[in-house]
């Protein structure tokens, strides 16, 4: 999964891939291999391949994370590159006004229904992929015509999620 992390005003490409029972994370030229274990609603444990363990706390509000690890707090905004381009008005926004799944996943929560008015950037649903919840946002202002999915359903990459009038 390719993501963009905005940290202190700098966009950093991040690539997360399954690696054995854990993940391989690429940050620029640095590679980290770790398992992540849920230790509570906002607490996770990272176990690195060298045996180290780190516990961190986080607070998530849409794509913004506040992470506290070893007494140091950082703020990071995370989004996938296609959503970033769509929000900037570039490629990724469908000409037919159909919002499609950018990756396979499971719909965790719907925030809209047919007839709802939304504004560009407003969250319309949460799609879980690779144990991460991704907020799918409205590419433009408008009215929702159709919702093609329901909470709990699984979708393939490219599947229609929501259609605008």
SSE blueprint:
Blueprint lengths: L1 E6 L2 E10 L2 E6 L2 E11 L2 E6 L4 E9 L2 E6 L2 E8 L1 H7 L10 E3 L4 E6 L6 E2 L4 E7 L2 E6 L4 E6 L6 E2 L4 E5 L1
Antiparallel strand pairs: 1-2, 1-8, 2-3, 3-4, 4-5, 5-6, 6-7, 7-8, 9-16, 10-12, 10-15, 11-14, 12-13, 14-16
What does this structure look like?
By secondary structure, the protein is mainly beta. It folds into 2 domains: about 1-80, 2-Layer Sandwich (Glycoprotein, Type 4 Pilin); about 90-165, OB fold (Dihydrolipoamide Acetyltransferase, E2P) (Beta Barrel). The chain is about 5% helix and about 60% strand. The strands form 3 sheets. An 8-stranded antiparallel beta barrel has the order 1-2-3-4-5-6-7-8. It is elongated and about 50 Å long.
Summarize the helix and strand pattern as letters: EEEEEEEEHEEEEEEEE
Number of helical elements: 1
Rounded to an integer in angstroms, the radius of gyration calculated over CA atoms is 17 Å
The oligomeric state of the chains shown is single chain
Q: How many E-type strands?
A: 16
Low-pLDDT residue spans? 89-95
Mean pLDDT: 82
Q: Between the first and last Cα atoms, what is the distance in angstroms? A: 31 Å
> Any idea how many domains?
2
Q: Portion of residues in helices?
A: under 10%
Overall 3D form: elongated
CATH class annotation of the largest domain: Alpha Beta
Q: Report the sheet with the most strands, covering strand number, pairing sense and barrel closure.
A: 8 strands, antiparallel, barrel
């Amino acid at each position: 999964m390719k993501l963009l992390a905005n940290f202190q005003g700098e966009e950093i490409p991040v690539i997360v891939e399954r690696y054995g029972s854990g993940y391989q994370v690429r940050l620029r030229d640095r590679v980290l291999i770790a398992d992540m274990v849920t230790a509570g609603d906002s607490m996770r444990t990272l176990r690195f391949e060298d045996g180290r363990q780190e516990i961190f706390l986080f607070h998530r509000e849409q794509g913004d994370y506040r992470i506290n690890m070893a007494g140091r707090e950082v703020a990071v905004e995370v989004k996938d590159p296609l959503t970033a381009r769509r929000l900037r008005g570039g490629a990724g926004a469908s000409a037919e006004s159909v919002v499609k799944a950018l990756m396979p996943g499971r719909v965790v929560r719907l925030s809209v229904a047919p007839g709802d008015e939304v504004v560009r950037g407003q969250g319309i649903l949460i799609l879980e992929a690779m144990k991460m919840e991704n907020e799918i946002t409205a590419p433009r202002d408008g009215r929702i015509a159709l919702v093609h999915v329901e909470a709990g359903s699984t979708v393939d990459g490219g599947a229609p999620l929501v259609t605008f009038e």
